[in-house]
């Protein structure tokens, strides 16, 4: 058949053959060769129409019959796809199993590593930082509080409070550059997971606590008599925060996390401290959302190369401290990916407090 342009053909067809309610006249174009298909010589598959000889397997390059099409959305014989085109599992390195319903695998939403669904429940270790599962042949280290850490995250992990001093200074300079100077000086302490157990019990919808801003405040339950102020039968209880004095005792953060992740958590908790010291009592969703925004902004300052960040800083109203700038050029390829991972986690968080609060 003579090859013709699909769009031109459609226009000519409409002009030369006006639609008639009593006439079912329709010419089709092959999705493979872009040529006209004669009646009775086509295959309707994968959302398109093909010449029989044009629907060919991407593996063996031979024509595919209707009963040989795989359940995937690609052009493969069922057997070719099963034997040769199944993806390898990121964890066990084997072909992901197939079934009558097709090939089912799980995939990390950011790293996009495909793996067998069974590895979610078979005890396969997961990095507490980047969330990647431990692949066969790789080594994950065990931290003292039973968390696992991959070797790439370990390269920049902050392991004790002394190592955090420069990062603490950097975050303070970052806030100062945003005209939100934190006046009070308080310690930043890296701790094991057990030290955050109490806060972790109060986590919302599976959000694991990785940092706490400790302040001198208590939640008390007060009794109110209602509008009618009757003494009997109208008493009700409601919670109220009591703060003796705007004060922050310390910030606690899990040890053993990469510097960039530790910095993001610290920026989040530093915003809590800033609000405490300013005497701002916000509802939980709004406060956590604002803290996520500050963590997101700090990560964004590490997103670009040194040159790009320096040029943007000169023309931006957001002042990025020099301490931050000096670290950007030293990032490894993995650290740059880790920045994107952390930013993606904040932006795609669907939790009703942190995720909704950030978007709000």
Overview of the structural elements:
InterPro entries: DA1-like (IPR045218), DA1-like_dom (IPR022087), Znf_LIM (IPR001781). This protein is of the alpha+beta class. It has helices at 6-16, 78-85, 151-154, 165-177, 197-201, 259-277, 284-301, 306-315, 322-328, 333-348, 354-359, and strands at residues 28-29, 36-37, 42-45, 48-51, 98-99, 102-103, 106-107, 114-115, 140-142, 148-150, 157-158, 188-191, 211-224, 236-254, 257-258. The chain has a three-stranded mixed beta sheet with strand order 12-14-13. It has a two-stranded antiparallel sheet with strand order 1-2. Strands 3-4 form a two-stranded antiparallel ribbon. It is 32% helix and 19% strand. It is elongated, with a radius of gyration of 30 Å.
Number of strands: 15
Structural class: alpha+beta
Mean pLDDT comes to 76
What's the quaternary structure here?
single chain
N-to-C series of helices and strands: HEEEEHEEEEEEHEHEHEEEHHHHHH
What is the overall shape? elongated
The stretches of 5 or more residues where confidence is low (pLDDT under 50) are 1-6, 19-25, 231-235, 309-329
- Order of neighbouring strands in the sheet with most strands: 12-14-13
Counting DSSP H or I runs of 4 or more residues, the number of helices is: 11
**Gap between N and C termini, in Å?**
59 Å
Beta-strand percent range: 15-25%
Largest sheet: 3 strands, mixed
Tell me roughly what share of residues is in helical segments. 25-40%
Radius of gyration: 30 Å
Domain LIM zinc-binding: 28-99
Biased composition (Low complexity): 308-326
Protein name: LIM zinc-binding domain-containing protein
Pfam families: DA1-like (PF12315), LIM (PF00412)
């Amino acid at each position: 058949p003579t090859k013709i342009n699909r769009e031109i053909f459609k226009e000519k067809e409409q002009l030369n053959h006006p639609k008639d309610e009593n006439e079912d006249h329709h010419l089709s174009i092959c999705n493979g060769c872009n040529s006209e298909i004669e009646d009775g010589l086509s295959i309707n598959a994968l959302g398109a129409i093909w010449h029989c000889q044009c629907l060919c397997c991407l593996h063996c390059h031979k024509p595919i019959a209707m009963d040989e099409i795989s359940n995937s959305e690609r052009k493969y014989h069922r057997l070719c796809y099963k034997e040769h085109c199944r993806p390898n599992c990121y964890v066990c390195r084997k072909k992901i199993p197939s079934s009558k319903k097709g090939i089912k695998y799980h995939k990390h939403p950011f790293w996009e590593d495909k793996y067998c669904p069974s590895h979610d429940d078979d005890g396969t270790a997961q990095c507490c930082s980047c969330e990647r599962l431990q692949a066969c042949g790789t080594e994950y280290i065990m931290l003292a509080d039973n968390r696992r850490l991959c070797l790439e995250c370990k390269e920049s992990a902050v392991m004790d409070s002394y190592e955090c001093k420069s990062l603490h200074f950097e975050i303070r300079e970052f806030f100062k550059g945003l005209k939100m100077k934190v006046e009070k000086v308080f310690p930043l302490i890296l701790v094991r997971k057990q030290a955050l157990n109490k806060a972790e019990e109060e986590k919302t919808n599976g959000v694991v606590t990785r940092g706490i801003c400790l302040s001198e405040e208590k939640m008390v339950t007060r009794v109110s008599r209602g509008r009618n102020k009757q003494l009997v039968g109208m008493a009700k209880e409601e919670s109220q925060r009591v703060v003796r004095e705007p004060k922050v005792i310390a910030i606690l953060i899990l040890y053993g996390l990469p510097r960039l992740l530790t910095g993001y958590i610290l920026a989040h908790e530093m915003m809590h401290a800033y609000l405490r010291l300013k005497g701002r009592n916000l509802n939980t969703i709004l406060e956590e959302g604002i803290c996520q925004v500050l963590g997101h902004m700090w990560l964004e300052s590490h997103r670009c190369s040194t040159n790009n960040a320096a040029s943007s800083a000169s023309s931006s109203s957001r002042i990025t401290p020099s301490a931050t700038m000096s670290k950007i050029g030293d990032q490894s390829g993995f650290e740059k990916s880790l920045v994107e991972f952390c930013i993606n986690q904040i932006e795609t968080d669907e939790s009703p407090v942190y995720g909704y609060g950030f978007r709000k």
